[in-house]
Structure formats: C-alpha cells, structure tokens
Amino acid sequence: MNARVSRSAAVLAGLALILFPLFGFAVKLVYPGWMLVLAIWSSWLLIPGYVIQVVIAASALLRPSGVLRHARGAWRALTAAWITSVGVLGVGFFLIDGGDDGGSESAMTVLFGVTGSAEANGVSMVFALICGFLWIAGWVYLVVEWIIQLILLRQSRKPV
To answer: Within the chain, how many helices (H) and strands (E) appear?
Structure first.
C-alpha cells in the first residue's frame, strides 16, 4: 500500500460520515410530515446502514492506521464518503414532506420563502431524488471499496 491521504482529509471525511446523516435528520425536522414518519418506520433499514457507515469512518478513516487512509486509490473512498454524506444531507434539505393539513414543503422551500409554490416543490423534489441517488450510490461504493481494501490488506499481510 503505497498511497496516503492527508490526515485532515481523512478526518474530515470520517466526521462527515458520522455527522451529516444526523444533520440531515435535523434539517428534515424543519418541516416534518409523513415522509419523516415513513423514515422512522423504515429505521430497521436506515440504522444498520448508518452503523456500517460509522464503523467505516471510525476504523478506516479516523484511526491513523485506517485502511482507507493508506490504500492505493484512497481518494476514491474519500470521494464516496463525501458523496454519500452530502447526499443524505441533501435529502433532508430537499425532500418534500407534508401532513394531514394538505401542505407540502421542504426545508429548502421554507428557507427560501417559497412555501405553497408548486414549481418550488417540484424543483425541491428533483434535487431530493438526485441527492437520494447520490446517497445510496456513494454508500454502496464506499462499502465495496472498504471491503476490497480490507481483503487487499489481509492478502498483503499473509506469509508467503
């Protein structure tokens, strides 16, 4: 393993993996509704994914000897970490949500003062879908990269 990413880049990516999902949830609380309830009901899917993400951050990015800090092509893992982190934060910010009162808004439409605008809701939902795709794709790529680097590390430490 001949590559090395800077300590600050790895630590920032690791912290983003841990904190951005929490920030995304907090941002979603700006305008809670049935989508938030659905996310809570599906937490049996979200929580294990977040736990895996925290394990990757803690063991592979935040530790000085972390596998993703010293791996060849470690920039790919850092890029995936940032993509999934920004994606989940974007979903929390852009996802349209509403309740029984008939109103549907997102944190973006509330922040920019365009509540009640069908066009703004449409734009917000398009961004939410893009961010959702980036969130999932980045997460899957990060997990795959982590597993590959663990396998390569194990093979390099095997006695010949």
So the answer is: 7, 2
